[in-house]
Amino acid sequence: MSNPKRSDSPSLNPKTTSYEFLGPPGAFAITIGVPVLTYVLYFTCNESSGACPPPIPTLYPSLLQAVSDPAFWWKLWDPKAFAIYYSWYAFCLVAWAVLPGDWVQGTKLRDGKYQKYKINGTISISIHRFFDSR
Asked: What is the pLDDT of residues 84-102, one digit of tens each?
């Protein structure tokens, strides 16, 4: 027996007929490859490598040297940056919950329902800029 709430209408959940970026394997490669390449360049582009980007043969030894040194990892931790980032995140959560804003209807979901979203970004960023300028 079929579920009466679920609609199998093709307009609600159309079948994908083409992919961009080589489809799921490409999305996986981009998701993993970009952060890895970013970290490799970050760890190996320094004064000791002699150039940026560093010569290809020195990438792996420089990366290995950087990640094997515990002092290097402690240099990445910055309590002030941590506090600023999570303060911003907490501000966004509180602003969403407290500040007024219009509730708008989003696009139709796969089950035929609509999600509602609170739109209060302008007032949130205005308050942030006010406190940030002090």
From this structure: 999 999 999 999 999 999 9
